[in-house]
Design goal:
The complex is a heterodimer. Chain A has strands at about 5, 10-15, 20-25, 30-40, 45-50, 55-60, 60-65, 70-75, 85-95, 100-105, 105-110. Chain A is mainly beta. In chain A, strands 2, 4, 5, 9, 10 and 11 form a six-stranded mixed beta sheet that branches. Chain A has a five-stranded antiparallel beta sheet with strand order 1-3-8-7-6, with no helix packed on it. Chain A starts with a strand and ends with a strand. Chain B is an all-beta fold. Chain B has strands at about 5, 10-15, 20-25, 30-40, 40-50, 55, 65-70, 75-80, 85-95, 105, 110. In chain B, strand 7 and strand 8 (about 75-80) form a beta hairpin. The chains are: A mainly beta, B mainly beta.
Chain lengths: ~110, ~110
């Protein structure tokens, strides 16, 4: 079993929809939770990070972490065609292992006009 | 543009050969990370260097090695290449004390024939 599980999709939504992307994890030592966006043939781009549990909002994006359930989410409001990309969750512990990030396999999102 | 540069963009080589991938981190970043991204395995952490010293090791094969030079650029050496080594190789960098913020380069696409 992988440490981080993520539904690969593809997820197709109409423009303006609210998108929910999720990851589950098994390692209770994870404390930092990140979301990256990756356009085709490009490097991952850091969208948001959250430390421990709670919510964080940045414009149209909201990240949620529920450590009790080992479940994290990224919500995208008013989705746009430019949001079409693969979204990767990533996690790391507080100490040890350098700054190693453990990634999910990514969810492919397509926002259609 | 993340500020991380990687060369070359594409590399096509034959089985059994050796290649070197190069990465320049963002200005001021001391940590460099190497990742491999393949379709079936997702983004896998290979190795981290901090200011010239190896800091953490992931799923890096013995045929692969890396180093970070005094000017902080890094090279990933892949030898005795196999078909299964075909993948995207990403370099990322992070600043001191910013454990969760890794900035990725555009990647090198390696094709082994």
């Amino acid at each position: 079993q992988k440490e981080v599980e993520q539904d690969p999709g593809p997820l197709s939504v109409p423009e303006g929809a609210i998108v929910s992307l999720n990851c589950t994890y098994s390692n209770s030592a994870f404390q930092y939770f990140m979301w990256y966006r990756q356009y085709s043939r490009k490097g991952p781009e850091l969208l948001m990070y959250t430390y421990s549990s709670g919510n964080k909002e940045d414009g149209r994006f909201t990240a949620q972490v529920d450590k009790s359930s080992k479940y994290i989410s990224l919500f995208i409001r008013d989705s746009q065609p430019s949001d079409s990309a693969t979204y990767l969750c990533a996690m790391r512990g507080l100490t040890g292992g350098g700054n190693k990030l453990t990634f999910g396999t990514g969810t492919q999102l397509k926002v259609e006009l | 543009d993340s500020g991380v540069t990687q060369t070359p963009k594409h590399l096509i080589t034959a089985t059994g050969q050796r290649v070197t991938l190069r990465c320049s981190p963002r200005s001021g970043d001391l940590s460099v990370y190497w990742y491999q991204q393949s379709l079936d395995q997702g983004l896998q952490f290979l190795i981290q260097y901090y200011n010239g010293e190896e800091r953490a090791k992931g799923n890096i094969l013995e045929r692969f090695s890396a180093q970070q030079f005094p000017d902080l650029h890094s090279e990933l050496n892949l030898s005795s290449l196999e078909l299964g080594d075909s993948a995207l190789y990403f370099c990322a960098s992070s600043a001191e004390g910013r454990l969760y913020e890794q900035y990725f380069g555009p990647g090198t696409r390696l094709t082994v024939t």
